[in-house]
Amino acid sequence: MTIGRGCRDASLIAILVALLASQPAIAQEEIPPPSGKGRLVVVLSGATGAGNYRVIANRIAALGYDVALFDSNTINAARKGRPLSTALSDAVARARQLPHALPGKIGMVGFSLGGGMVLGYGSAWSNDVAVVAAWYPSTLEIKDVPAFVGRIRVPVVMFAGTADEYRFCCMIDKAREIDGAAKAANAPFELTTYSGVGHGFSIPATGYDSGSTEDALARTAVALKRHLGG
């Protein structure tokens, strides 16, 4: 599915988003839902840190979820010679201990570097994860696409811009290859592409595209509600 390019603007909302996103990044931050407690959604930032994703994390929390926002760089740094999957699993375990998180399967939402993490690992963790949303994820490490698709056990929604050439990590051809393999294998994977849109389209300072951001957020909300409730 391809969505046309949204209008770029310098609205007051976009300015507010930029100001909020400029707050310093931290390793982990809990953003409780309005109701006080909710199903857990782990949100993993891109390499630029958690600050650029705090606004979207807040909007996900406003849907009724307890959001644990992580700086993906800190997860990478916590590896200390261990597999990345172990460091990510440890982060999820810590998030489960947050005071406003309800038990049960979780949702995972990731962007760029964090998108690669939730796509690469969360999509296989069906015992713990109910749904994955990967925004312009890094797919460079996926070498054997059919083998990767064969490990998908969790419903995945993925969002990619057709003009994304950022460090050649998140190329649209790889996204489409994954989508084609998933369709052939009947894997629970859905790709939405945004025509003419580049990397980091949800980040105000680096190519913000309001139409793509709002569409991806709406589709993320639908996926979370379908698989987590709320």
What does the model show?
- The chain is α/β, with parallel strands linked by helices.
- It has one domain (about 1-230): Alpha/Beta hydrolase fold, catalytic domain (Rossmann fold), CATH 3.40.50.
- The chain contains eight helices and eight strands, in the order βαββαβααβαβαβαβα.
- The protein has an eight-stranded mixed sheet with strand order 1-8-7-6-5-3-4-2, sandwiched between helices.
- The chain starts with a strand and ends with a helix.
- Mean pLDDT is about 90; it is low at about 5-25.
Order of strands, widest sheet: 1-8-7-6-5-3-4-2
CATH architecture: 3-Layer(aba) Sandwich
Q: What is the overall pLDDT average?
A: 88
Give the CATH H-level superfamily. Alpha/Beta hydrolase fold, catalytic domain
Q: Could you give the order of the helices and strands?
A: EHEEHEHHEHEHEHEH
* Count of discrete structural domains: 1
CATH fold type: Rossmann fold
- Rg, Å, rounded: 16 Å
Structural class: alpha/beta
Q: Could you list the spans in which at least 5 consecutive residues all have pLDDT below 50?
A: 5-26
Measured as a percent range, the helix fraction is 25-40%
CATH class: Alpha Beta
Number of helical regions: 8
Task: Tell me the major beta sheet.
Answer: 8 strands, mixed
Strand content: 15-25%
Envelope shape: globular
Through-space gap between termini: 26 Å
- Counting DSSP E segments of at least 2 residues, the number of strands comes to 8
